[in-house]
UniProtKB/TrEMBL annotation:
Protein name according to UniProt: thioredoxin-dependent peroxiredoxin
Quaternary state and interactors: Monomer.
UniProt keyword annotation of Oxidoreductase present: yes
Catalytic activity, as annotated: a hydroperoxide + [thioredoxin]-dithiol = an alcohol + [thioredoxin]-disulfide + H2O
Species this protein is from: Streptomyces sanglieri
Family matches, as PANTHER family: PEROXIREDOXIN SLL0755-RELATED (PTHR42801:SF22), THIOREDOXIN-DEPENDENT PEROXIDE REDUCTASE (PTHR42801)
Length: 161
């Protein structure tokens, strides 16, 4: 497994296909980290669509999106499944944040979270509006996740720094 990016340095850029559920439509497009400059971005790497812990994690982030938006932050879920799987996952659970498809795990490798056997470690990276990595948490075991409250607390500190 490659090392995780260093805090205080520019986060590795990437472009991934994905989509976001907006009403009845699942709007597909490419997402580029550099294109989000000016806003904070929460990168939530998760092992798989429609798995118990991932579903609980992403549902909690989706239901708390207003708190992220108040801090001028976007939340992007990233996993190895394709965009069709993400669309089904988003529709089934009413997920309102973009879900990105890292099918070749290149982005997971760049962030040091690609893992043999499970594919991707559960991890969260908070990127400041300047593109700098400000906070991260990489789970050793994927059975738990960082709460939306913990993430918004960290984001609040970034915005006030």
């Amino acid at each position: 497994m490659a090392p995780s990016p260093q805090l205080g340095l520019i986060a590795p850029d990437f472009t991934l296909p994905g989509g976001v559920l907006g009403g009845e439509n699942f709007e597909r497009r490419d997402y580029t980290l550099a294109g989000a400059r000016g806003r904070c971005v929460v990168l939530a790497f998760y092992p798989g669509d429609n798995t118990a812990v991932c579903t609980k994690q992403l549902c909690s982030y989706s239901s708390g999106l207003e708190a992220f938006e108040e801090l001028d932050a976007e939340v992007w879920g990233i996993s190895p499944q394709g965009v069709d799987s993400h669309e089904s996952f988003a529709r089934t659970h009413g997920l309102r944040m973009p879900l990105l498809a890292d099918t070749d795990r290149e982005t997971a490798r760049a962030y040091g979270v690609a893992a043999p056997g499970i594919g991707v470690r559960r991890a969260v990276f908070l990127i400041g509006p300047d593109g700098v990595l400000r906070w991260k948490h990489v789970a050793l075991l994927g059975a738990t996740f960082q709460s939306a409250a913990k993430l918004t607390e960290q984001l609040s500190g970034i915005k006030n720094a």
